[in-house]
Every structure is written in structure tokens, then in C-alpha cells.
Design goal:
The protein has 9 helices and no strands. With 155 residues, the protein is mainly alpha-helical. It has 2 domains: 81 residues, Ankyrin repeat-containing domain (Serine Threonine Protein Phosphatase 5, Tetratricopeptide repeat, Alpha Horseshoe); 65 residues, no CATH class.
Length: 155
Amino acid sequence: MGELEELVEAIKRGDLEQVRTILDQQGQLVHGKDSTGATPLHYATMYGHRQVAELLIERGADINSMDGQFGATPSGWAIEYLRERGGFLAIELDDIAHAIWQGDTPWVARWLERFPGLRDACDPDGTPLRQIARAAGHIEIIMLFEMEKKLSKLS
């Protein structure tokens, strides 16, 4: 196992002392990139190890470094980790609710295509987006929310 891989493994485990030891010996690894272009900071944020991330930043990690696979920053990796589990930013939930109320069908369709989990999400006040769609009364948007249910019944 190479030095960068050893560092990444320590980061994945959240082993702050091992990360510190490795960086004390080979500080340049803070800038290392794996075969996908991800940095140690990408992994620290993905695995939710805040103290490790803070150490990497203190040691000079580029907080806005983009990986080579997705063009994502460490912040993007943290968000994607939560998205995979159904998480959204409050501003996204607020924006789609606004688009629903405004009857902006193309915008709502774009959001639902990109993030199908929004069909089961709630706005920041806890109101299900499906319920908002029905209350707003825009038939095309209601159909967008119901489309997933109909497709799953056909499967």
C-alpha cells in the first residue's frame, strides 16, 4: 500500500492520530490525489470526520479542490453522501416548493428528474411536496409527482 492510500485508509477510519503521524512525516500528502483525482479532504468530508478535515485544512488542504471524476469539491462529496440517504439542502426544498406554487412545470420536472427522492420529501416547514402540488392545483405538476407511483406499479 502506498503512502497516499495509507493516509486515505486512516482518514476513512477517522483515525486522527494516524493521520497526524502520516502528515508529520509526509506533509505533501495533504495535496495528494488518488486515481479519481480525489484528495484526502474529499474522503474526510465524505466519511464525516470533522476533526480530520480540520487537521487537513490546517495543513494546507485545498478546500475547493475538484476531483477528476465528478468535478466535485469536498463540500460536494459531503452533500452527495447525504443525498444518497435522501438529504436535501433547505434552499432546494424551498425552491422546489416555490416552483410548485408558481406552476413552473419545466423547473419542477427538472428537479424531480435530477432528484427523484424529492417526490417523497417535505418543504422546510414539514409539508410533503406532493401535498403542496395537490394544493397548488397545477395538474401537470401533480402528474409529475404521481408518475413515479404509476411506473412502480407497472414494474
